[in-house]
Write a structure and sequence with these properties.
This protein is an alpha/beta fold. It contains 18 helices and 18 strands. 39% of the residues lie in helices and 15% in strands. The chain is elongated and about 105 Å long.
């Protein structure tokens, strides 16, 4: 929302200056983004008293900018001119006031105007000017100072700025402790787990004059989206190659940057093919996704770490039948190009404080190797190289090749292995977990929790129905599929499949 400026001053004396200021502010590339100007003469005639209108505008403005000259203006019955009334109202309301005085001496001024100037001098800094050009220059400097004081104009990284309205009480001590534990294991972080919250924040440069920065809230906030609503991550899964409704699976994740990254990565992994091999060649059971987990994680973490948090857009993770797209509202630093991303390059984080904490927990490296690692991982997995693009944000596209998971664990041909988890007609990770859960009878509510689903009908049709049609699951009440007491159990065919594989922890 723009800041509203009320420009006060005797209309006849300052008509040129007032119009010039309005035109300059509205025409300047920087000031026009933050400010709107009110001039009394711009209001169309209405059946209202003039003094009521301008005093109402003073009450609604953010900045009171007064031009004081020689004339006092037409006084009312109480002996006060409109300018004097406006000045007193702005003073009483504690408005941010900027006072400009025309002329270097006060000899020719109206006595009551001298009173206003003297009163202003006791309360705020007054600036003098002779020409419009001097006035415009001084106003520009004053408005930039205002933006800096109100922390609306950043001179440093966004993540280093104080988070408006936030205090240390908005930081989660538990999240700080978990971070320290992980950072100690990952990068030999020097602070102990029991270190006080403020000390950890100070060590990480996440306090600004005792107040938490944007990075502090994004990393360790109890409710980061309370302060930065667009910092959420939106994940969607489409069966086709285009964005279309209905969306089979859609989730909006909230939390810290660590939680956002973990949840988004898990969302993708739960929807792509997972192949689990046998112990034919090793005591270690081979497990493979159709896309390397590291590539997915790198794309998602980079989007969360390097996005433009001043944008109203959110990170979007979209899984299509042929590709994964990770979009973030941001761009590349001026020194980087899309081509340079494909070659060794320096690390230039847009949010350096976020990047530092993500580095300390091994979510990212800080050598500019992320995109190169993604390319190398895709090559090793037999996938096309990731694609990078700048549209209305930065997009990473990873092409899917579902059969790669099956091939990675040394599977049989499709005809020979049709009953195996991970064949070309195989199962997703959530479905595998559901089968394991159904060794004992389970309700649909219990099974929905595994997949993180909330829509019962969609879950039944999209997840359970294929398992039942394949003969892997049985309904305890087959004549009433939607019964409220319906439960699901593993069939003999399902048991035969699961008997061939380990659980995730490697136990039989």
């Amino acid at each position: 929302m723009k800041q509203r400026i009320f420009i006060s001053g005797v209309q006849k004396e300052f008509i040129g200056e007032r119009q010039a200021l309005k035109a300059y502010i509205h025409g300047d590339a920087l000031l026009s983004r933050f400010f709107d100007v009110f001039l009394f003469e711009d209001i169309p005639a209405k059946d209202r008293r003039a003094d009521a209108v301008y005093l109402e505008e003073v009450r609604g403005c953010n900045i009171y900018l007064a031009l004081l000259g020689n004339q006092y203006g037409m006084p009312d019955k109480a002996g006060f001119s409109p300018t004097h009334r406006e000045f007193n109202e702005a003073t009483n309301l504690g408005k941010y006031r900027i006072i400009f005085i025309k002329g270097m001496t006060d000899e020719d001024r109206h006595p009551k105007m001298k009173q206003i100037i003297e009163a202003a001098g006791e309360q705020v800094i007054r600036r003098r000017f002779s020409k419009i050009e001097e006035l415009i220059t001084a106003v520009y400097a004053s408005l930039v100072d205002y933006l800096a004081v109100k922390e609306l104009l950043r001179v440093g990284p966004f993540d280093a700025a104080v988070c408006p309205g936030a205090t240390v009480d908005d930081i989660s001590a538990e999240k700080i402790k978990r971070f320290v534990e992980l950072a100690r294991r990952s990068r030999s972080f020097p602070l102990a787990e029991e270190t006080a919250v403020e000390q950890v924040l100070e060590h990480l440069n996440l306090l600004n004059k005792g107040r938490p920065t944007n990075a502090a809230i994004l990393l360790f906030g109890k409710a980061p989206q309370k302060f930065m609503i667009s910092s959420e991550v939106k994940c969607a899964h489409f069966h086709g190659t285009q964005v279309s409704k209905p969306i089979p699976s859609y989730q909006v994740y909230k939390g810290t940057v660590f939680e956002l990254a973990d949840q988004a990565v898990d969302f993708v992994l739960s929807k792509i093919n997972l192949a689990v091999g046998t112990r034919e060649h090793s005591v270690q059971v081979p497990v493979a996704y159709e896309m390397p987990r590291e590539v997915i994680s790198e794309a998602v973490v980079n989007a969360v770490a390097h996005r433009d948090y001043t944008s109203n857009g959110s990170v979007q993770v979209m899984l299509f039948s042929d590709r994964l797209e990770v979009w973030n509202p941001g761009s590349l630093p001026p020194s980087l190009t899309l081509e340079k991303l494909r070659h060794p390059h320096g690390s230039i984080p847009g949010n350096p404080l976020l990047a530092e904490s993500l580095y300390l927990t091994k979510y990212i490296e800080r050598m500019g190797t992320g995109t190169g690692d993604m390319i190398a991982q895709c090559r090793r997995a037999g996938l096309p190289e990731p694609e990078f693009a700048l549209t209305d944000g930065f997009v990473v596209t990873i092409r899917r090749k579902p059969e790669m998971a099956f091939e990675a664990v040394g599977g049989q041909s499709e005809a020979e292995g049709r009953d195996q988890v991970g064949t070309k007609s195989g199962l997703g990770r959530d479905q595998v977990e559901i089968l394991r859960k159904c060794i004992e009878d389970q309700s649909i509510t219990d099974l929905m929790a595994i997949a993180g689903r909330t829509n019962r009908t969609k879950f039944r049709n999209q997840v359970l129905k294929p398992l039942i049609e394949e003969g892997l699951l049985l309904m305890t009440i087959p004549d009433k599929p939607t019964s409220s007491i319906q439960k699901y159990r593993l069939s003999d065919k399902g048991k035969k499949i699961l008997a061939k594989f380990h659980k995730k922890d490697g136990k039989e």
